[in-house]
Structure formats: structure tokens, C-alpha cells
Amino acid sequence: MTHKKASLDLLAQLHELTAQVMLAKVRSGEVTAADLAAITKFLRDNGIQVMPGEDENINDLVAELPFDEDDDNVVTFGR
User: pLDDT tens-digit profile of 6-29?
Assistant: First the structure.
């Protein structure tokens, strides 16, 4: 029995649908911690990064984190 590989077009469609489902979950307000972890991994695996200061939503999130601005420790997320 021969197995065919999925075409790049099919994989691209699957990738886009995955992103759409994730976005819909976030927008629904019913996103879970596990969903957020999967979304974070999806973004990281696709090279999506935003540094604090570049995006208002990220700035708001950083402002809520329990760290002092003067803290010399470096905090990394998603690793």
C-alpha cells in the first residue's frame, strides 16, 4: 500500500483553518489555559513574536505581570 504525502496546498489550508479555529476560540471568551498554551506554541512555532513596547495589548499584559520594572531578572515566556 502506497501512502501519498499531503500537498503543500492542503497543508496550507489546514494551517489557515487551525489559526481560524484558535482565533474563534479566543474571541468567544471561552478560551482555556490549555487553549492559550496551544495558541502560544502555534505562534512560536510559526515565528510570531512581539516585543513589549511594540503593541498596546502586549504592553497592557506586561503591565499586569507581577514583576518590578527595575528587576534585573530576565523573564522568558513559552519555553
Answer: 899 999 999 999 999 999 999 999
